[in-house]
UniProtKB/TrEMBL annotation:
It is an enzyme of class 4 (lyase). Gene3D superfamilies: Aldolase class I. Its EC number is 4.1.1.23. Substrate binds at residues 11, 33, 60-69, 119, 180, 189, 209-210. One of its GO terms (molecular function) is orotidine-5'-phosphate decarboxylase activity. The lineage of its organism: Bacteria, Pseudomonadati, Pseudomonadota, Betaproteobacteria, Nitrosomonadales. Catalyzes the decarboxylation of orotidine 5'-monophosphate (OMP) to uridine 5'-monophosphate (UMP). This is Orotidine 5'-phosphate decarboxylase. Pfam families: OMPdecase (PF00215).
Length: 235
């Protein structure tokens, strides 16, 4: 498979534990996501070494700050050779545009996406922070803002994927965490979907962490999901 749909979330406390998993994985089968925990513990050197091993790396640091700071952070991330990075759409239009402009127009630039509403958030959580309307309303509003600012796509729940593809077009990239194979534990995720259902709904890439990294046999868990997806795509 040349365009792996699965992004394995490397939510590990240090480089050694992350690399122990990565040693079992194949860049033809999955991409990798480095988030706040691992990046803070292991630093940019780890990101570069994953990229040098041939993995497409999604640097998930969810930048959210004043426009100039975010633009400079995006430039620094691009210099690490990542495939994709993200910012928070809640940072607003000026921040989103500054982030996008910082990456320039080269064909080799990383994809830039924005987090809409975290998949861990329920309607009750939204009310607490003053967001009115349904999760779908908030995601559509933030994704439209992101689209208008010229970004490549959003992170959203697969539950919102069909609506976003319909409204913002097929080429707007949808990256969906909150993926749970049937019977898997939900953990802190609220708005979840199975891998096959998420792709059918319009997800372009599936971010999967604990169902793979906490499995007794992580490689087998990845292969099982991969097979399930491939069977659905090529029946
Ligand atoms: O930006 C993300 O990747 C992200 C956004 C979001 O709304 N929800 C979400 O779960 N994530 C990330 O996706 C991964 C999900 O991991 P699991 O819940 O273990 O599959 C974690 O690394 C989260 O940081």
């Amino acid at each position: 498979m040349n365009d792996p749909k699965i992004i394995v979330a490397l939510d590990y406390p240090n480089a050694d534990s992350a690399m122990a998993l990565v040693a079992q994985l194949d860049p033809q089968l999955c991409r990798l996501k480095v988030g706040k925990q691992l990046f803070t513990a292991a630093g940019p050197g780890l990101v570069e070494s994953l990229a040098n091993k041939g993995f497409a790396v999604f640097l998930d640091l969810k930048f959210h700050d004043i426009p100039t700071t975010v633009a400079l952070a995006c430039k620094a991330a691009a210099n690490l050779g990542v495939w994709m990075m993200n910012v928070h759409a809640l940072g607003g239009s000026s921040m989103l545009r500054a982030a996008r402009e910082a990456l320039g127009e080269s064909a080799q630039r990383p994809l830039l996406i924005a987090v809409t509403l975290l998949t861990s958030m329920s309607e009750t959580d939204m009310v607490e922070i003053g967001l009115t309307g349904s999760p779908q309303d908030a995601v559509l509003r933030l994704a439209s803002l992101t689209h208008a600012a010229g970004l490549d796509g959003v992170v959203c729940s697969a539950q919102e994927a069909a609506l976003l593809k319909q409204t913002l077009g097929q080429s707007f990239c949808l990256v969906t965490p909150g993926i749970r194979p049937a019977m898997a534990a939900l953990g802190d995720q609220q708005r979840v979907m199975t891998p096959v259902a998420a792709l059918a709904a319009g997800s372009d890439y599936l971010v999967i962490g604990r169902p793979i990294t906490h499995a007794a046999d992580p490689l087998k868990a990845l292969q099982n999901i991969h097979t399930e997806i491939s069977n659905e795509e090529n029946p």
